[in-house]
Amino acid sequence: MQAPQIPTEVLIPQSFTSITQAEDHLLAQVAMKQETITEQQLEHPLIDQSTLSGMVFMGDTFNRFEVTDTLFRNCTLVNCDFTGISLFRVRFENCKLVGTTLDHGTLKAVTFVDCDGSLTNFNETKLTQVAFQHSKLTELNCWESTLKQCQFTDCDLNQADFSGTSLKHHDLSTCRFETLRVSDWAVRDCRFNETQAAYLARLFLGITLA
User: Record's SUPFAM superfamilies (predicted)?
Assistant: First the structure.
Protein backbone atom coordinates (compact mmCIF):
# COMPACT_ATOMS: atom_id res chain seq x y z
CA MET A 1 0.00 0.00 0.00
CA GLN A 2 1.23 3.50 -0.81
CA ALA A 3 2.32 5.47 2.25
CA PRO A 4 1.17 9.06 2.81
CA GLN A 5 3.53 11.62 1.33
CA ILE A 6 3.96 14.03 4.24
CA PRO A 7 6.72 16.69 4.38
CA THR A 8 7.16 16.29 8.14
CA GLU A 9 10.02 18.81 8.28
CA VAL A 10 7.72 21.68 7.27
CA LEU A 11 4.56 20.88 9.23
CA ILE A 12 3.17 23.80 11.22
CA PRO A 13 1.35 23.18 14.55
CA GLN A 14 -2.24 24.27 14.14
CA SER A 15 -5.67 23.82 15.70
CA PHE A 16 -8.28 21.87 13.77
CA THR A 17 -10.81 24.59 14.59
CA SER A 18 -8.96 26.95 12.24
CA ILE A 19 -10.52 25.03 9.37
CA THR A 20 -13.77 26.87 10.06
CA GLN A 21 -12.01 30.18 9.47
CA ALA A 22 -10.47 29.17 6.16
CA GLU A 23 -12.57 30.20 3.18
CA ASP A 24 -11.93 26.90 1.40
CA HIS A 25 -12.08 24.77 4.61
CA LEU A 26 -8.56 23.52 3.85
CA LEU A 27 -5.80 22.49 6.26
CA ALA A 28 -2.52 21.64 4.52
CA GLN A 29 0.93 20.72 5.86
CA VAL A 30 -0.11 21.12 9.49
CA ALA A 31 0.27 19.05 12.66
CA MET A 32 -2.77 18.77 14.92
CA LYS A 33 -2.61 17.34 18.43
CA GLN A 34 -4.77 16.61 21.47
CA GLU A 35 -8.02 18.38 20.61
CA THR A 36 -11.64 17.36 21.10
CA ILE A 37 -14.09 18.25 18.33
CA THR A 38 -17.69 17.48 19.27
CA GLU A 39 -20.84 17.66 17.11
CA GLN A 40 -19.17 19.95 14.58
CA GLN A 41 -20.85 20.26 11.16
CA LEU A 42 -18.71 21.07 8.16
CA GLU A 43 -19.39 21.11 4.41
CA HIS A 44 -16.56 19.74 2.27
CA PRO A 45 -13.58 20.06 4.67
CA LEU A 46 -10.17 19.20 3.21
CA ILE A 47 -6.99 17.97 4.90
CA ASP A 48 -3.77 17.48 2.90
CA GLN A 49 -0.23 16.39 3.84
CA SER A 50 -0.88 16.60 7.56
CA THR A 51 -0.74 14.63 10.80
CA LEU A 52 -3.36 14.23 13.53
CA SER A 53 -2.26 12.81 16.87
CA GLY A 54 -4.45 12.14 19.88
CA MET A 55 -7.39 13.95 18.29
CA VAL A 56 -10.95 13.18 19.40
CA PHE A 57 -13.92 13.57 17.04
CA MET A 58 -17.31 12.68 18.52
CA GLY A 59 -20.66 12.96 16.76
CA ASP A 60 -19.28 15.22 14.02
CA THR A 61 -20.84 15.53 10.56
CA PHE A 62 -18.35 16.28 7.78
CA ASN A 63 -20.12 16.17 4.42
CA ARG A 64 -17.87 15.27 1.44
CA PHE A 65 -14.79 15.06 3.69
CA GLU A 66 -11.57 14.87 1.61
CA VAL A 67 -8.27 13.70 3.12
CA THR A 68 -5.03 13.17 1.18
CA ASP A 69 -1.53 12.14 2.31
CA THR A 70 -2.39 12.26 6.00
CA LEU A 71 -1.62 10.24 9.14
CA PHE A 72 -4.11 9.71 11.97
CA ARG A 73 -2.32 8.35 15.06
CA ASN A 74 -4.02 7.46 18.38
CA CYS A 75 -7.16 9.29 17.30
CA THR A 76 -10.79 8.71 18.27
CA LEU A 77 -13.47 9.17 15.59
CA VAL A 78 -16.66 7.86 17.22
CA ASN A 79 -20.23 8.07 15.92
CA CYS A 80 -19.21 10.53 13.22
CA ASP A 81 -21.00 10.93 9.87
CA PHE A 82 -18.48 11.13 7.04
CA THR A 83 -20.88 10.19 4.24
CA GLY A 84 -19.32 10.72 0.82
CA ILE A 85 -15.78 10.74 2.24
CA SER A 86 -12.73 10.61 -0.04
CA LEU A 87 -9.47 9.20 1.34
CA PHE A 88 -6.26 8.88 -0.70
CA ARG A 89 -2.94 7.73 0.76
CA VAL A 90 -4.19 7.95 4.35
CA ARG A 91 -2.99 5.88 7.30
CA PHE A 92 -4.80 5.22 10.59
CA GLU A 93 -2.68 3.87 13.46
CA ASN A 94 -4.24 2.75 16.76
CA CYS A 95 -7.43 4.69 16.06
CA LYS A 96 -10.98 4.11 17.28
CA LEU A 97 -13.70 4.50 14.65
CA VAL A 98 -16.61 2.84 16.45
CA GLY A 99 -19.99 3.58 14.90
CA THR A 100 -18.61 6.00 12.32
CA THR A 101 -20.21 6.19 8.86
CA LEU A 102 -18.17 6.29 5.65
CA ASP A 103 -21.01 5.32 3.32
CA HIS A 104 -20.88 6.26 -0.39
CA GLY A 105 -17.18 6.98 0.02
CA THR A 106 -14.06 6.42 -2.06
CA LEU A 107 -10.97 5.00 -0.34
CA LYS A 108 -7.72 4.34 -2.20
CA ALA A 109 -4.32 3.39 -0.75
CA VAL A 110 -5.65 3.57 2.81
CA THR A 111 -4.27 1.56 5.75
CA PHE A 112 -5.88 0.78 9.12
CA VAL A 113 -3.41 -0.69 11.65
CA ASP A 114 -4.34 -1.77 15.20
CA CYS A 115 -7.66 0.04 14.90
CA ASP A 116 -11.10 -0.55 16.40
CA GLY A 117 -13.59 -0.33 13.54
CA SER A 118 -16.47 -2.04 15.31
CA LEU A 119 -19.89 -1.03 13.97
CA THR A 120 -18.23 1.13 11.32
CA ASN A 121 -20.18 1.59 8.08
CA PHE A 122 -18.63 1.29 4.61
CA ASN A 123 -21.90 0.79 2.70
CA GLU A 124 -21.93 1.43 -1.07
CA THR A 125 -18.30 2.47 -0.80
CA LYS A 126 -15.41 1.90 -3.21
CA LEU A 127 -12.33 0.47 -1.47
CA THR A 128 -9.20 0.10 -3.61
CA GLN A 129 -5.87 -1.05 -2.14
CA VAL A 130 -7.22 -0.69 1.38
CA ALA A 131 -5.42 -2.67 4.11
CA PHE A 132 -6.96 -3.70 7.44
CA GLN A 133 -4.21 -5.03 9.71
CA HIS A 134 -4.53 -6.40 13.27
CA SER A 135 -7.83 -4.57 13.70
CA LYS A 136 -11.18 -5.18 15.35
CA LEU A 137 -13.91 -5.07 12.71
CA THR A 138 -16.77 -6.75 14.58
CA GLU A 139 -20.24 -5.92 13.26
CA LEU A 140 -18.66 -3.96 10.42
CA ASN A 141 -21.22 -3.04 7.74
CA CYS A 142 -19.98 -3.18 4.15
CA TRP A 143 -23.12 -3.61 2.04
CA GLU A 144 -23.19 -3.34 -1.75
CA SER A 145 -19.59 -2.10 -1.83
CA THR A 146 -16.73 -2.62 -4.27
CA LEU A 147 -13.45 -4.11 -3.01
CA LYS A 148 -10.35 -4.20 -5.20
CA GLN A 149 -6.90 -5.40 -4.08
CA CYS A 150 -7.78 -5.04 -0.41
CA GLN A 151 -6.03 -6.83 2.47
CA PHE A 152 -7.46 -8.29 5.67
CA THR A 153 -4.65 -9.42 7.97
CA ASP A 154 -5.25 -10.85 11.45
CA CYS A 155 -8.55 -9.02 11.95
CA ASP A 156 -11.63 -9.84 14.05
CA LEU A 157 -14.49 -9.95 11.54
CA ASN A 158 -17.09 -11.56 13.78
CA GLN A 159 -20.62 -10.60 12.70
CA ALA A 160 -19.30 -8.39 9.91
CA ASP A 161 -21.86 -7.86 7.14
CA PHE A 162 -20.67 -8.00 3.52
CA SER A 163 -24.13 -8.48 2.01
CA GLY A 164 -24.06 -7.78 -1.73
CA THR A 165 -20.28 -7.26 -1.72
CA SER A 166 -17.98 -9.56 -3.66
CA LEU A 167 -14.93 -10.90 -1.84
CA LYS A 168 -13.51 -12.43 -5.01
CA HIS A 169 -9.69 -12.62 -5.05
CA HIS A 170 -9.44 -11.55 -1.40
CA ASP A 171 -7.93 -13.48 1.52
CA LEU A 172 -9.65 -13.76 4.90
CA SER A 173 -7.73 -16.82 6.06
CA THR A 174 -5.80 -15.02 8.82
CA CYS A 175 -8.93 -13.38 10.23
CA ARG A 176 -11.38 -14.61 12.86
CA PHE A 177 -15.15 -14.87 12.85
CA GLU A 178 -17.83 -17.13 14.27
CA THR A 179 -20.53 -15.69 12.04
CA LEU A 180 -20.24 -13.68 8.85
CA ARG A 181 -22.99 -12.20 6.71
CA VAL A 182 -22.12 -12.65 3.07
CA SER A 183 -23.87 -13.66 -0.15
CA ASP A 184 -23.16 -17.18 -1.42
CA TRP A 185 -21.97 -15.94 -4.82
CA ALA A 186 -19.70 -13.36 -3.16
CA VAL A 187 -17.32 -15.88 -1.55
CA ARG A 188 -16.27 -17.53 -4.82
CA ASP A 189 -12.51 -17.30 -5.35
CA CYS A 190 -12.03 -15.87 -1.87
CA ARG A 191 -9.46 -17.61 0.34
CA PHE A 192 -10.55 -19.02 3.72
CA ASN A 193 -8.93 -21.32 6.26
CA GLU A 194 -10.39 -24.77 7.08
CA THR A 195 -12.47 -23.58 10.04
CA GLN A 196 -13.98 -20.76 8.01
CA ALA A 197 -14.66 -23.08 5.06
CA ALA A 198 -16.51 -25.49 7.35
CA TYR A 199 -18.69 -22.62 8.60
CA LEU A 200 -19.50 -21.50 5.04
CA ALA A 201 -20.29 -25.07 3.96
CA ARG A 202 -22.74 -25.35 6.82
CA LEU A 203 -24.21 -21.91 6.12
CA PHE A 204 -24.79 -22.28 2.40
CA LEU A 205 -24.99 -26.02 1.83
CA GLY A 206 -26.14 -27.40 5.17
CA ILE A 207 -23.01 -29.55 5.24
CA THR A 208 -21.40 -30.43 8.55
CA LEU A 209 -17.82 -31.65 8.27
CA ALA A 210 -16.79 -34.55 10.52
Answer: Pentapeptide repeat-like (SSF141571)
Closest to 62 (Cα-Cα) out of 32, 85, 78: 85
Sign of CA dihedral 64, 79, 29, 104: negative
Q: Where are the domains of the chain?
A: 8-205
Q: What phi and psi values does residue 196 have, to the nearest 5 degrees? A: -65, -40
The phi, psi pair for 187, rounded to 5°, reads -95, 0
pLDDT tens digits along 115-167 = 999 999 999 999 999 999 999 999 999 999 999 999 999 999 999 999 999 99
- CA–CA distance, 49 with 116 (Å, rounded to integer): 24
CATH topology of domain 8-205: Pectate Lyase C-like (2.160.20)
Of the chain, the percentage scoring pLDDT greater than 90 comes to 89
What's the burial of 13, exposed, middle or buried (CB within 10 Å: 0-12/13-18/19+)? exposed
Distance in angstroms (rounded) separating the CA atoms of residues 145 and 113:
21
Pairwise CA distance, residues 208 & 164, whole Å? 25
Burial of residue 164 (number of CB atoms within 10 Å: 0-12, 13-18, 19+): middle
Q: What are phi and psi of 106, to 5 degrees?
A: -130, 115
Q: What is the pTM of this model?
A: 0.94
Residues forming a β-bridge with 42: 62
